[in-house]
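Work package 3, deliverable 3.1, input record:
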Amino acid sequence: MTLIVALDPPVGLGDPLTWALGIVDSLHGVVRGFKIGLPFILSAGIKGVERLSERLGGAMLIADLKLADIGYVMSISAKLLADAGVDAVIAHAFVGYKDALEDLKKMCDDLGVKLVLVVAMSHRGASEVMWKAYGDLLEIALKVAPWGIVLPATNTDLIRMARKRLRENMRILSPGIGVQGATPGEALCAGADYEIVGRLITLSRNPYQKAIEVLEMQKEMMRLCS
Amino acid sequence: MTLIVALDPPVGLGDPLTWALGIVDSLHGVVRGFKIGLPFILSAGIKGVERLSERLGGAMLIADLKLADIGYVMSISAKLLADAGVDAVIAHAFVGYKDALEDLKKMCDDLGVKLVLVVAMSHRGASEVMWKAYGDLLEIALKVAPWGIVLPATNTDLIRMARKRLRENMRILSPGIGVQGATPGEALCAGADYEIVGRLITLSRNPYQKAIEVLEMQKEMMRLCS
């Protein structure tokens, strides 16, 4: 399963937990996991995260708070999220190894939680500093040896470069499909393991049907590029 | 008032909200503000933030989630925090201006919330990428024109460099005092406006007495360096 769905609750569409549970139920058995961010966690609370985690039926729950603090603070946060049933946490590579990701990785290993590091983002501001530091950020990721890294589907060159340097078992998760511009399957063709899709699926009238379409487009692209 | 207290609830010392309210009450009228982070917000919830904000009696409440996402996600988060009574939010300069801090600044202005940008951190891992990008990060801060920026008290050279480049009315908030190594007053002497102190005060037997001591040390240092 090559699809992860980002559950970013739309503003003004009622209770975020009810909304998220509806999407989760409708995508049962179709996706590898769901990604929740700060807006969901702030509005639904850690109790909402617990409720969501109980309804996943085998799918992964990824907390995408883009942790970017000292190791102590990130580790406590990871512990609180793991206690609520989260399977993976996302942190920024740019905070570095020493007294930061080193500590978080250790905590994640102790908790049995998967660590995912953001190595590049796709919005325009990412070119101002992050892309210039791409080499250093990738090196930090190699040192931390997380479960996976995040690279944008809108810049498949970065994915190709990373795939050559990473060990086989380090996953690449790739957002930016749909509203942000990339086509389903593009990132997979470049070497990503999972594509993260949000609004294209969650705001469609029929999220299940749309998810199936995305999976079919992925398969078709993979067939063409392999 | 030159002191901001970081309310990072110690693990295993009971309910974080009760703990934080106790500290806030004991420091009434003595400090400029309080800073809360992800561990507090995850455990006390947005309701806990509301409860805390109602007890401040004029002190500022700063949400230090070190936001580091695209503008849309950071803006929604800032809105939810503002609705709970937060006066200022901290984000990373690292994510850049376009489609990121530009949007967040606009949202903060609309909400009447102060924006504070992290330009440098003090842990060892900060030297791996962040310090190398210091010039770029400071430029981004100048472009965003936030209410303030964060620079570590443990590296007063960075504070001196920034103070020369920043407009008078852009505040410098400086953590790293006490447990992390800097002496109260050092950052102020280098050009900071506020020093952020956490455990040195919050874990002391008498937080009020300790805060008064810190303020006196600040005054003494300022007298010596001016």
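The mean pLDDT of chain A is 95.
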